[in-house]
């Protein structure tokens, strides 16, 4: 990189926010799982949308590629620069300094927030205003709003509140030529043409750099009821979901499926963790009801629903949380699955979605096919049953066996992804495609659909400078 270009970047963001030393750039160049490591000419840390726009305009003139990055908690290498940039070089654009809450409109139930704000900081700001921002996921302490938007994150409350597409009203985006599109409108109705914000949500930074957003807020729950429920098979979970929706309506805010292998990893690696039930069960559910009314009677309602499910033979056992501390302890079991599995070593991760009616068939057929192909396989299955999203992760218990198994990733993917496609599902429900699945998706999307995506890319990023080698 020329000294002239470095000086230009330093003039935009300040010399101390142009990182080049290996020790300074290293945390930005490796993904959370440690699977991908890339190279960047430098790491730039802008503090305003104007600075982002100036950087993008300067990179466009120089033909430099740009990799936007938030909290670097992604699981598919979507925010990691390429190991071989192809000769023109890549600049990593870290948005973590753009972390301000610009405004909270309580009457409109909206918040305007910058892309580098962490999810937990937004949740705290909403709570201080007496409101709820409902997106919740395990990495919320470091994951940023820009990353959540770029991957269309879902999380554990998507059943009630939807994913980031449903939670977003407006965006501010820096386009490929350095112009800033100000779409920060807090309108729930705006039928004046194409809904442009939806192009950038879920695009993984390949079409533009999201710098701020207007997001929906909701009434803050004053009462929660949570239970840990045992069942024999995923089919019972789908049936129970239908019953709880009929009995509890929109109060049903959490419905998380946890396979026994997933729970055992957490019990082994999370200090102080214990099994909520006296006996082990092949499948468990974390069920939560919530309401804005403090006297909503949720505990009694959930207990009655579970008794009815037990009488119907759907569930085998259940433990109700009796305090806020117990509620948090149950949620920690669910939220620490990914971290516990990471401690055990690398796995073949599948973030899939199928119709609710196909969940039981997918688990049964995928389990059987994989165990037959890979004897001794450990299948860690958990996820958001309410929207058909399962995290279906594969590994071998011993490090030596696992290394040999990981080398057969393509064979494992073919079994899982072909079945998902057959059942009308998606091979990426909420993590995105990134580097991990950019070739895999060609097998499952039609040529017409891929061509439409490429046309959108060419229209918004004609030089192909935004996050090359991801998604397409």
Task: Explain what this protein looks like in three dimensions.
This protein has 472 residues and is of the alpha+beta class. Helix content is 36%, strand content 20%. The chain is built from 17 helices and 18 strands. Strands 15-12-14-13-17-18-16 form a 7-stranded antiparallel β-sheet, with helices on both faces. Strand 8 (168-174) and strand 9 form a beta hairpin. It is globular and about 75 Å long.
Question: How do the helices and strands line up, and which of them pair or pack?
Answer:
Blueprint: H1 3-13, E1 18-19, H2 22-29, E2 42-44, H3 49-62, E3 65-69, E4 90-94, E5 101-105, E6 110-114, H4 119-128, E7 131-132, H5 145-150, H6 158-161, H7 164-167, E8 168-174, E9 180-183, H8 197-200, E10 209-216, E11 218-219, E12 223-231, H9 234-248, E13 252-259, H10 260-269, E14 283-291, H11 298-311, E15 317-320, H12 324-335, H13 337-344, E16 351-353, H14 359-373, E17 378-384, E18 389-395, H15 399-406, H16 409-422, H17 447-460
Mean pLDDT: 95
The spatial strand order of the largest sheet comes to 15-12-14-13-17-18-16
Count the helices. How many? 17
How would you sum up the major sheet?
A: 7 strands, antiparallel
Helicity level: 25-40%
Based on CA atoms alone, the radius of gyration comes out at 23 Å
Low-confidence stretches: none
**Into which percentage range does the β-strand content fall?**
15-25%
Overall body shape: globular
What's the N-to-C terminus distance?
26 Å
> From the helix content, strand content and strand pairing, which structural class follows?
alpha+beta
The count of strands amounts to 18
